[in-house]
Every structure is written in structure tokens, then in C-alpha cells.
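Q: Give me a protein?
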Amino acid sequence: MSPDVPLLNDYKQDFFLKRFPQTVLGGPRLKLGYCAPPYIYLNQIILFLMPWVLGGIGTLLYQLGILEDYYTAILSGGLMLFTAFVIQFTSLHARNKSVTVERMLTTDILAEEDEHEFTSCAGAETIKFLIPGKKYIANTVFHSALAGLLCGLGTWYLLPNRITLLYGSVGGTVLLFVFGWMTLCIGEYSLIVNTATETATFQTQDTYEITPLMRPLYIFFFFSVDLAHRFMVNVPVLQQLNQLLHILFIFLPFLWALGTLPPPDALFLWAMEQVLEFGLGGSSVSTHLWLLIMFFISAGTAVTSYFIPSTVGVVLFMTGLGFLLSLNLSKIGFVFKLNVIRHRVGTKSKTLPNCSEKQFTWKEYLFYIIVLVLALLETGLLHHFAGFSQIAKNSPQAILGYILMVLFIILWILKEIQNVYIFGIFRNPFYPKDVQTVTLFLEKQTRLAKIGVVRRILLNLVSPFAMIAFLSLDSSLQGLHSVSVSIGFTRAFRMVWQNTENALLETVIVSAVHLLISSTDIWWNRSLDTGIRLLLGLELQETSCHTAEARRVDEVFESAFEQEEYARVCSINEHFGNVLTPCTALPVKLYSDARNVLSGIIDSHDNLREFKGDLVKVLVWILVQYCSRRSSMQENVHKIENKRKASLIVLPALNTPPQTESPEDTDSLNSETLDDWSDDVFGEEPTIKKGREKDQLKILPGINLPIPGSVESQRVGNHSTGTVTENSLYKAIVLGYPAIDKGKQEDMAYIPLMEFSCSHSHLLSLPEEWMSNCLPNSKVKEMSSLFPEDWYQFVLKQLECFHSEENASVVVEEIAKDRVLKDFYVHAVMTCYFSLFGVDNMIPSPGHILRVYNGVLPWSVALDWLTEKPELFQLALKAFRYTLKLMIDKASLGPVEDFKELTNCLEEYESDWYIGLVSDEKWKEAVLQEKPYLFSLGYDPHMGVYTGRVLTLQELLIQIGKLNTEAVRGQWANLSWELLYATNDDEERYSIQAHPLLLRNLTVQAADPPLGYPIYSSKPLHIRLF
């Protein structure tokens, strides 16, 4: 961070002294840094002066009166064309004549990169060094033809008699002739011999060989003005411009070397953007493609308005297109396309972005349509009925001009009141002095917020309608089929909506000039640049340079936003000369990231024992809530009151005597953990064989089977009824049993018919595909003892889906007493329980908790049954994760006192938390949905501890400032020159040295890659104005 760091170190200074003369001369390398044969320099000088020699032949013949001037140009151009082809094909022959040369090893790497070996004056190595050649054959032909045209027109441009006629001075003619041919030789050399490295670089790599065209392009511009002057006589402006450009022509090498003139690709894009912004009223765009689209649309609007025969039609056309083009058409089109796709599929896809829905709603579309209609009515009626009048102080347009002046002053005052500093110097007395807390800041900023709303209405609604009224009454619209009217009013009617503040300023200036000098022929164009706003980030590793500049940034913001209450009302900005000017502070929602070590919690034997009991309760709560929400989405539940038909479901008989277990049955249940499931938790993720994992997590198509138990089976979802045979009522799907001989199927226990005792139990019935059994009756009877019936009764009584019923309490009581429904929940809950833990009913290890949390379960018969039901699998996994969070909260905050507190905890997890994995897509969705809390379980293999990560959403005040536009652009331009032209790769280079006044280090880092290295750079964002 030393202030004595030079712009370039010693090594780069030598490099620059070799490269810069090459840039000035257009390519000749007259300073190599090592000893080269004399013919290397001599050959370059001959190639450099070749165009002058060929052009001098034609010039001599013209001066002697042998040839006319145009024949002279043709002769010189033809000779140059032939010479260019000879040079290019010589280079091509040398490259094709490949010769393998073994070089002696050297320890000087830099010398090896720079030095070349030459064997003869016309050897292959010499020719390849002098004439690198073109990459493409098309460029070989095109550049050679361009070189001939350039030499021919240059000879015509620099004829001594022609220069004497322009200036009438022999001394000036000699000076312009000599240095003019030097400029022409520089352009020819960079085109056909060797292209110099330009200081003005737009692309890091010249893929299509555009750089050789840079200098000839500017030379052709000078030639075009001279040709126009030759064929358009008696035009004083062209003569004066031609005289000026002949003088400027000899200074082109210095303009090229200093990087003043941009390369062709940047020139066209930059010129197109300037015409779009300042000529057609548009704004800067984010991509080259969108720039081309908006340019041609805007230019087409101006051209179309030129051919409209009616003044009213012109006004309506400009008003409508000006408003439509001011909108973000790309975003609107994208959202419209998404809506069309959603309408076709008939549902909202989860993969479609949600941000667009928030930014464009039907209300916003309706608002735009209303504004457009009102604007068209206003301009059409005023233009048709108000008529035109000469400029006078009492004319309708003059009155509108006064209104616009008052409106501009009011908006300017309201704008300055919103900032922390007025003019960037005096502190705003209305701005809160202490903005350290969000609540206090928002209370003190209430008045400023109201002022901001008033200003926004005046700026976005009142000002545009006042300006289009002013424009529609302008008498210049009477002059139809005028280029100035078409371009000028196309720009004006668009800027009214595109850039309202600038348009208001320009309109006020035009109105004031009209009133002062009574002339309608003066048009003022001015653009106010409010500066480039940057979010200053830091490098991944903080340095002393960052520390110095970051400290200054803190000081600038602290002096503006953190003042004592007894401070002066209107203090002076202590950092007025700094490039950073504080603007305001805004409350922003951010996530705090806390990582805790769970040692002593997740590995506690008591906590793990309670975990198993809590898991059953959480499973009951989640399944009941799921059924409650599922029933609320079905058809109106009141219609079911009128249907008193009994609904029968399939359920395993818990009261029937268990069948005798076979040895195979016992073995199949005890082999819950296989060899392919490792207990190693020291990896980043639990290990399991991929084949088995795919089998577990694959989604099988649901099989809709009729509900056994009734001839007329009813389904609440779609009220479909069907009649089945009696034999099919006793068919049960039993998964996981050993193979049984078909001849003994009559010995298998069938599932008897069970009837709900309450007609409303349908509302909490689980999906029918979850009714199949996968466990033997012995386990089914054993697991019923683990079911928390008191908790089940409590959860049912807390449901809100029956509150609309007249006798809600009675309905809930009847459902709670329904033994069939309870047995159904026992079967579903305990099967999920055994799928997560296994049937051994052992206390789980911390490694087991981590693996199941990550969605990797040990294989078992129950797991096969569970994974065939993806929705139930996700619910079980969700319950497991909720239980883990509950265990951590109980260990940290204390035990749960009663069922009511447990319900409140689970409801909080459901509404305010996302508990899952950081790698999940739902984690990102939860962040975008601004979930208050996010939790994830992890393991640190280096420390050997389990960790918990909690993201907490909170609102903080973020201080906003703006950087001086020219300071930022100047530093970025210097960065481009230093890295791309001077190739300064020094770690302590000049451009990254700390400068607290310019904030050089932070500004350079914020540049676009590859020159800068910002930590985060978002895509262009759409911000609504209404």
C-alpha cells in the first residue's frame, strides 16, 4: 500500500518502451530488446514505406501532367492491391513450409518467449516474424482489396495540388503531404503486414481479426468527407470541414496510440447506443442483441411517423409508441409467454420462476392500458381542438410551460429533501440523525416517506401528462414530412415516459428559451448522469488496501447517518471531496448465518430415547394435518351430511389372533440392516450403494384399487362409485412376505371388512393406496401399544376444518372415538416409524440420525412399502426432521410442558421454518419465499462433531451511496490499459493500491470480469415505477 508504487515496474517499463512505438507506427517492431540482424529492421522499413512508394509513382505522374487525378488513384490502388496479395501469399507460403528447429535449452524463460532465431533475410522464420499473416483466407482477400482501395483513395486525398487549393500555402502542403503519407503508411502496415496492439481494446481476443480494420476505418471516414466535397461543389460547410479534417488527419497516429478512438466493434455498438439514447429517446440496454432490436424498432418509429399524412395521426402514433417503447418489453414478453404456457397446461409449474409473477400482475397490465388510453385521449383532443398559436405569454403552450417550471422546482426540492445531504454539501435537517435501528429509523422517516410518495405521483403521473400536453400543442407539428420533426418529437414523446426527470428538465429549458427569444427552432438536448451505483464488495481475503478504503467508507457513512441529537441542524459534509456521496438508508431483509456444534445434544442417550417417542407424535400430527388439508381441497364437505351411507375401508384386523409366524417370516424381518448400508458418518454424505438407493427412491405409478368392504365403494375425492365382485373384496396386497405356494393361498389371513363408526371420518381418511399391509400381524399388534392415543385424541380436537359446522365439537368427538380410523392411523404411523428405525426398536445412533435426515434409510420390507408411496415418504422424512429440531429445542430451551405447547412448536415449524438440506432445491425456494428460519443438520469430519446451521431472517438498515461517474470510468479505463495493453501482472500493481479519496482498490474490484473480480454481480433487474 505504499504511495511510492510506480505505474509500471522496471520490467514492465522496458516492455512498454518496446510496445508503445510499435503501437504508434502501426506494427513495425523497431525495438526488440535483443540483438537482431540488420535486415530485420531494414525489411520492416521497406514494408512500411511501400504504400508511399507506390502512391508516389502515381503522384509524380499526376504532377507531370501525364495522368488525371482519378487515373492516378486507380494506378496506385492497383499497384498496392498486387503488392498486398504478394505479401499475403508470401506469408502463407512461409507458414506452410514448416521446418522443425531444435532449440538449445535455456534457463531464461522470459528471454525464450521474446527472442527469435533468424537464419537468412528471406527465411521462413524471418517472414513469419515480419508478416504473421491472416487466420482466414477470406480476410486475406478482403484485407488485400481494402489495402488497394485505401492506397488509391489516399493518393487522391494527398495530391499536392489538391492540398494547395484547400490552403493556398506551399509550406502547409509539404507538411500535410509528408505526415499525411506517414498516417496512410501506418494504416496500410497494420492492415496487411502486422497489426499493432491497440491501447483501446474492447475484446480480450480478436477472433475475427477486426483490429486490423480499426485504422483504415477512420482513414476512410476522412476520405468520405473529401469525396463529398469534390462532388458537391459550392458547399462552404463541407469545404471548412475538409480543411479541418486534413489537419486532423496527420494527428491520427497519436489519437490511435492514446486510445482516444475506439475499435470498430465498440465504435458501432457505442454509436448505436448513443443514437438510441440521445437521438431516439431510448435508454441503455444490457445485451448487444437487445440493443439491435430496440435501435431498429426506435428508428422504424421515426421513419414511420415521417410518412403519416395527418398531424393528429402523427401525435397519436408518437404518443402510443413512445409509451409502449418506454416499457420493459423483454420482461413483459417473457411473462406473457409464461402465462400462455401455464394456460395451455392448465396448471402452474413449479419450475417456472415466481419473481415474474410478483413483478407483473393483471392489475399492472390494466394500469398500463388505462394510462395509454388517457394519454392518447389527452394528446388527440388537445391537438385537434386547442389548435396552434404563435409563441406568446398567454398561449396555452406557454401556460403549460409555466406549470412545468413550477412542477420541476417542486420535484427538485422534494428530491433533495429525500437525500441525507443537500447538494452533497449540507446535511438535510429533515433527515433522521440516528439511523442505527430499523424501528426508530422508520418512525422518524415517516414524513419523508409521505413526501416520497407525493414526489413519485408527481413524477410518474402528473409530469408525463403535462409534458405530452405541452408537446401536442407545439406549432412545429404543422411541418409534416420533416426529418427534424419526426426525430425530435419521436424522442420527446418517448422520453416523457422513459426518462421523465431528464425530459422535464429539457422541456423546461425549451419552454424558457421559447419565452425569452420567441424562436421555435432551438432544441436543447442534455443528459444528466446521476452516477454509477455500485455495491462495494470485498475480496475473499482482506488486505491492507481494503482495510484503508473500507475504513474511509465507514467514516463517510458514519458522519452522514450516525449523528448525536444535539448536533447542528445543518452541518457540513466532512467528506465532500470523496467520490462516495451518501444518499439514504434503506431497511433490507437479510439472513444471518449461525452454525452451532450439537455435541451433548444429538449424542445424548436420554435425548435419543425421547426422540423415538416424539417421532411417533410428530408423525401423527403431520398425517392428521395432511388429511385435514386434503379434505379441505375436495368438494364441499356439507354435501356429505346428506349422504348417510356407510363407507367401508380395508384395514388390518388388530383384534384377530395373530397367525403363526414361520421361520422365513422372522428372518425376513430381522434382516433389516444389510451390508450395503455403512455406519460411517465421516464422509460428506452417508454411503449407500447407488443401485439400492435408486430402487428405494424411485417413484412408482399409483395403482387405484377399489376399496374392499362394500359393493358400492365411494371415494370422497371424485365421488366415483363402482361395483365389484364379492371375491375381489377379499383380495389383499401383502408386500414383503416370503414366497407362498399358490395352492395354500386360502391359509393366508385376509383383511376383513371394517366400517367407520362416524360418517365424518371420511374427511380424515388417508389415501387408499396407503392401506396395504407389509408387516405380519404380530408386528401390527405389537406396534399398536406404541401409538400415543391421548395425543391422537388431542390433535383431532385441535383441527380447524370442522369449525364451520354447527355441531363442530360433537363431530370432532365422534371422529375421535372412531376406532377404525384410529387403527388406520396406527397402521400408517407405525409402518413409517419402523421404516425409519427398523423393527428392532433400538435407540438410534447419531450417525443413524444424520443418515435418515439426509434421506438415506436402511433397507427393509417396510422401506420398500414406503418408497412406493413418494408422498408418504416425504411426509415421514419431514416428520423425522421436525422431531430432530424438536429434540434440539428441548435440549436448549427446556422440555415441552404439555400437548398445547408441543402443538405450538409444530405449527411454528410448519409456518416459519424450513428444515431440510442446504443442497435441496426447496432450500433455495424457502430463501426466495423469505422463510423466517431455515435449519440444516451437518457433520464436520475435521472436528468430528455434528453441527446445526440456522438462517434467521432479519431486517437491517443498509446505507446507500453513489460514486462519481467520471471517477469510476477513469479508473476502469486505466485498469483496461494497464492489464490489456501494458500486461501488468504485478500483485502490487498501481491500480489496486489503496486511495481513500478515490476508493481505487474497491472500485477496480467492482469492474466487470475479467478485469474486475466482484464477489457477486446480479443480472439486470426489473423495477416497477408504479
Observations:
- The first helix runs from residue 10 to 25.
- The mean pLDDT is 76.
